[in-house]
Each structure stands twice: as structure tokens, then as C-alpha cells.
Amino acid sequence: MPASAQHSLKPEFHSQALKAPAALVQPAAYQSSDSYVEPVIGNEAVFTDEQGNISPVSYTAGCCDSCTSGCADVCCDPCCGDCCDPCCGGCNSCCDGCGLFGGLIKPSERCFDMISPISNPLFFEDPRTLTEARLIYANHNIPNSQPLLQGGNVQYWALQLRAALTERLSIIATKDGYIDIHANNPALPDTQGWADVALGLKYNLIRDPSTQFLLSGGVVYEIDMGAHQVFQGNGDGEFHLFLTGYKRVFGGVNWISASGFRLPTDTNARSQMWYWSNHWDYEVFEDLFALFEVNWFHWMRSGDALPGVNFEGGDLFNLGSGSVAGNDIVTAAVGGRYKFTDHAILGVGWEFPLTHRRDLLHDRLATTAISDQNAGIMSNHTFFGYWFTFTPPDHPAIRLSGLFLCASPAEPFVYRSFPQYQENDKVILVMQRNHTETDLDETIGRVEGLGLKANVIVGTERTVIAAVGDERDGYKETLEACPGVAEVLPILAPYKMASIEVQPERTVIRAGNFEVGGGRIGVIAGPCSVECQEQILASAQAVKKQGATALRGGAFKPRTSPYSFQGLKEEGLKLLASAREATGLAIVTEVVATDDVELVGKYADILQIGARNMQNYRLLEAVGNQVRPVLLKRGPSATLDELLLAAEYILDAGNPNVMLCERGIRTFEAHTRFTLPLASVAWLQARTHLPVVVDPSHGTGHTDLVPRMASASIAAGADGLIMEVHPDPSRALSDGYQSLNFDQFAKTMEMCRRVADAVDREL
Ligand code: PEP
Ligand code: MN
């Protein structure tokens, strides 16, 4: 039966033949590969059913999916459209293009993952440098035993604002808003009015993300501009001096501790107070934090405004009472916060005194909505709040109050500064022809001193250093002044190390007798899968006889169906190694998992990364960290830029020997298994110095199309070919319908040789 005719066979399921390599002697119906799902290629998967209907399946990957980091904890900042690494680079570093008002206001601190305190809301300051709007509502219940007010409640709602001016310095507006007092004493009418306004600065004195330790100090001035009827605007205001620190303690518990003084300018009008507040939180479920807080308030000095009065007004009021010096109140709070997004957090806390002394605070319920950085009112979340109070008929002493809050991911008032992508943030330093080794070493040192990674490429003409790293302002000038540097040029392509701008000379890769990228066309041939000793040995001898210099054969097979033959694994690798011993051919075989890289590298000369794994970045890094050359196949749904960026992962990890392989892509065309675009060969060669190999077997999926497409690849300028050859394709365990038998391979090679001659290449 001709191989192409097999295509019309209805696939049968022969579990015996497919699962047990021993059953190879049985004629095995091959599993059709026409029903084919490419699982995770770029942002889309493609499903093709057995009738050849193609349906794209999209998924959205978080930016962290493509983030690489040596550290365990990687954070994502959606405003940057990028990933950043809290422990290595500093989370804020990627956000240089972000912030508000053209970068005047910087983004919030992202390297400390705790939640803000909720009790003592006017003084207990989060030590982080934040850019946020914080909507606060607090309902204080007044003890019924309170001699003047005889119970009742105080409602306070406010909008605290914080804005980061630098990574460490922020402006904080901690008190403002509106106060509503309702006393049970029938002689006292309800009163409402504006609160004082407090404005100040906070500075990170110590900031160490690696040990999760942060210490900040600050000063705030409360301006006496509030309404007298709600006990605001007394005297000439007051200063608040504070220190606040954060430490991650045992078992992932976050601890914030703050202490400060209220120091009135007019000591008659207001009392002096000291406080010490502590907050502990723990992430109970993802993004849901439980918190516990304790606050100690101590009045150091009485005022003179209310002689003989022995209670004070807590954190909200400063009554200037005459007999409060020495009083202490300790409160505790329980509650939690939920992070809806990185930029929107809701919190609820209930605070109550632990001491006998309560003054005005029987207990208090506080809710806060924190809308961080570009979010909230200004960006990707809009908060709607509705405040209600309800007094049941016939029960005038009871007042129920509450706040409905909802956050919507709507965009109505979007203000947002979009990141400015700068493609020329990587540079090449072209060294002078007569530079010395010392010049080179010193220049490398300076590049690394700027936090950039220096990759040295020694060419026959020139030596260049590709400086790849985070964007830094002004480093071009600094680098131009380095010894022995002729010029500093931006690398414009998104791929850097793979780019022809970095290395104009073509990369030549050699493994034994196999060579690709030089004048000679490298031919890799052999079966899709290693099936048994006879099969692989016969294939090796046949392809060698026709001029192939490398033997292909999968030992670990990435199959579309879990029921298809998965390869002989290490046994297959050993068979490949024995074929190399017998023929001297270099071995090319696929590695499908990071854990197998070492094992496959023990037997193979060239590691193949299959189409399904082109964007498996961990695997790319793993093959980048070892010495064997890599054959990187294009994902059927990947663009050529994505292919080059995948190669970049391998190059960046330290392995310069990468060959790219065009193996066909998904299109609407269903007559061939894939569509083989040979223009990509010419396109790639104009942009990269890496050798380009073509796979006409997978690229067409039909044996009878392979010879012409193989020779066409050479005409298009391919540096190499990889072809599937099997002693008896009709019995192949995988991809028999696209494999050449020995005779067909000989004819294909003959055709290729004639084309190679015509284009002045050697085969
Ligand atoms: C193969 O070479 O056998 C193979 C599975 O190729 P691809 O990854 O291109 O599908
Ligand atoms: Mn195959």
C-alpha cells in the first residue's frame, strides 16, 4: 500500500500494538495524527478534528506565565504589561513607565506582601510607600455610661490619599472627611461637620525586601480647619511624629508595629498622646487575610480646654480635656482584608477596648476600600458607595448605619498612564579592532556594574558585547566612554542575542560529522520514533549511505493522544547511541521535559525541542544551561518573532548553538497536515545568524510531497534538512504516512543534490 493511501484509513485503536513495543512485529495500524490539538502554543491552542476542521481555542495567560526568574516569588504588574521580580530586580523597577501624571507619582511598593492596618486608622500608618486612595468608614459606638453623651454613635467617613514621590518617599493625607455625631442625651442635638485635614511625609529608612524588613518614619501635621461642632479645629493643630516597621515573622505571619506622638502646637487646646499599635496578619486563603491588632493609647499631658474632664476623644478628636494625663486605653481589633485585585482591597475590622477605661469608644466597626495606584476611581476599578442610616419607628435611640460598597471593573473614568515600551533598551557595544583584553574585561565590568548582562561575542571581524538587561536611563553615554569601545548601538529587534545586529557572522554548528550553518547543508534523517534495534540500525546505515550526517529518532515522543506510542524512552536512547557507534552519525533526538534533559544529553549529540514545546520556557532554559546543540522547532501557531524569542531563551541561558527549524504551521488549508512556508527561511536568514533547518516531513504530512519540498527548501536557502525515513513506513509506529522508505530517501537526496549544485551549496 503506498504510504499516501494510508491517509484515508480509518484509524483503529490497537492498544496492544501501540502500548507494547514487543508487539512491533505485528502490523500496526498507525494512529492518525489528523486529530490534533496543540495544547499550549502562544496564547492560543488549535484543535483539528478528524474531518480536518480547525477551531482555534484561545486562553489568556497571565504575564507571569512567561516570566523567568531565579527567585521563587515572581510578581506581575499589569500596569507594566510585564513581570517583575521582587527579590532580584525590585518590583518597582519594571514600572518606570508607569505611575500617574507622567511619572510624577510613582507606583506603590510591591515588594512587601502584607495588608494595611485597619484599627487606629488615623495614626497607624502602613510602612510601605504607597500610591493609593483609601475610602474609610467607621462607626463608633459610644458607651451608654458616658456621662455627657449617654451613648450614641459617631460616624466618620474619609478618603485617605497616599502618593509615592520616589521609591521611598511618599506624601500622606491621613485625616479628612466628614463626621456625624449622634448622642443619646436628648439635650444634645445631632451634629455633623468636616474633620480636620492632616498632611505629611513618610520615608522608608530601611527597606530590605530580601529579609522582608521595612522601617519608615514620618511627620504629619493636622491642620485645624475642621468644624467646631464636631470637635475639630481646636487650637493650632498638632504634629504627629511616628516610626512604623514591618517584618515577616514565623510561619508567614506579617507584623506591623508603629509608635508615635500627637504633639499639639497649642498645648492648652489639645492633649498630648502617645500610642503603640501592632498588627499581625496572615493569608488564610488566597488573597484573603485575617488580621489581629492591639493599640495602646497613653495620654501624656492634659490640655486646658475642658477643665476637670477626664476622658479624651480617641484618635478622631482631641478635646484638650483637663484631667487625662496618665490615662491608658488598650484596644484590640479583629478583621480581615480581601484583595480583589492587586489594586483593589476591601477590609473590615471591629475594634473594642480591652481596658476598663473606654472614654468615647464602646466599640467601632471600620471598613476600608483601598484602591491602589492607577486603580480605583482613576482606573480599572470603580467604586460605588452608598451610605445608609435607619432608625426603626418607635425606637429613636436605635440607629442602624452601614455602607454599601461595590467595586466594578468598569472603565468609565479611566485615567491610566500606559507603559512606554522602549525597544532600544538593549545595546551592542562594538569594540575597537585594536582593543586589549584589559579593555574588554573593564568594559564587561562596567556593563555589569550598570545591572546589565554582558554577552561577549567574538567574531572574526569584530568583538561585540550585547548588553541585555533592564532599561536604564543614560547608560549609552556611560558605555561609550568605556575603554576600547568603538560605538554603542541600540538593538532594535525584540530578540537580541539571536539578532543579526548582534552577530553579523553566521553561526556554524558542528556535532561529529554533522555541520549546519556553513557552506555545507546538514541532513538529519531517520525514523519518527525509535522502535527497535533492527529498525534504527537499518535506518542509520541507509541514511548514511545517501549522505546524511545525523540520525533522527524519537525516544521520548510528544504524542497528541496519550494512547499513542510514547517512545521507548531510555531504551530508545541506548539504541540510538549504538547506531551512532555503528555508523558515526550524530544523534538528534527530542527532549520533552526539563527533568529528562540530563538523561537525553547523555546519549544525544543534538537535543530537539519539538513544536509542542517551543514555548515551554523552563525547558528552553534547561537546554540553554547544557552544552549540546539544540534543534528548536517552530510551534505550528507561533510567529517567527516568537520562534526567535524562544531561541533567545536558550541563547540567554548560555548555549550559543541553536538551529531553528521550520516544520509547518496551521492554516485553513486541510490538504496537507501543516502548511510549509518556505519564505520563513529567507525571512529568518535576513534577521538571525542562527542556522535554519526545514522539516518537509512534518511540514507536509505526505510522503509524496517530501522530495519536492526538501529540494525547494534548499532552493530557498535552508542550511539543513530533517526528514523522516523508515525501513517500512506502513509499519511505522508514528508518522508512517509522511516517512520516506530507503528508496524514496535516495531519490530525494539525489533531487536535493541537483538543486544544491544549482545554488552553489554542498550536500
Ligand atoms: C518529530 O520530529 O517527530 C516531531 C514530533 O516533530 P514536531 O515537534 O515538529 O511535531
Ligand atoms: Mn514525527
UniProtKB/TrEMBL annotation:
GO molecular function, one term: aldehyde-lyase activity
Domain of life assignment: Eukaryota
Keywords associated with the record: Transferase
Matching InterPro entries: Aldolase_TIM (IPR013785), Class-I_DAHP_synthase (IPR052899), DAHP1/KDSA (IPR006218), DAHP_snth_FXD (IPR041071), DAHP_syn_2 (IPR006268)
Name this polypeptide is given: Phospho-2-dehydro-3-deoxyheptonate aldolase (3-deoxy-D-arabino-heptulosonate 7-phosphate synthase) (DAHP synthase) (Phospho-2-keto-3-deoxyheptonate aldolase)
Domain DAHP synthase ferredoxin-like positions: 428-492
Domain DAHP synthetase I/KDSA span(s) in chain numbering: 517-755
Keyword Transferase recorded: yes
An example Gene Ontology biological process: aromatic amino acid family biosynthetic process
One Pfam match: DAHP_synth_1
